Amino acid sequence: MLAHVDLPTIEALNNEWRLHPPVHHLVAAYLDYKPPSQASAQQTTVTDFEDLLSEIGNVPIRTVAPIDTTAFDAAMKEKNHG
């Protein structure tokens, strides 16, 4: 990517996008998507994690059992020696 874009390049990009808009812009227009306002986006930002953690409470951490690979190991042993 160029470090600096000159005005003719910007004009060429604008002309191209006017004829062939990016797909995500077309989909957003088709779905009538409206981005959230800046004020509501700032209100939903969580900065105090202690309040959030107190609401969640204690969350148990599940320990995953080891995977039994004996069948795979036997098949590989047969493949290498058979």
Write a concise synopsis of the structure shown.
By secondary structure, the chain is mainly alpha-helical. It has a domain of 56 residues.
Task: Note down, in words, how this protein is organized.
The chain has a domain of 56 residues. It has five helices and no strands. Helices cover 57% and strands 0% of the residues. With 82 residues, the protein is mainly alpha-helical.
Layout: helices, strands, pairs:
Blueprint: H1 7-19, H2 23-30, H3 38-43, H4 49-56, H5 70-81
The residue ranges in which pLDDT falls below 50 over 5 or more consecutive positions are none
Query: Globular, elongated, flat, extended or rod-shaped: what is the shape?
Result: flat
Radius of gyration: 28 Å
Fraction in helix? 55-70%
Order of helices and strands: HHHHH
Query: How many angstroms does the end-to-end distance come to?
Result: 54 Å
Tell me what portion of residues adopts beta-strand conformation.
under 5%
Number of helices: 5
Task: Sketch the major β-sheet.
Answer: none
Q: Report the count of strand segments.
A: 0
Question: What distinguishing features does this structure have?
Answer:
82 residues, 5 helices, 57% helix, flat
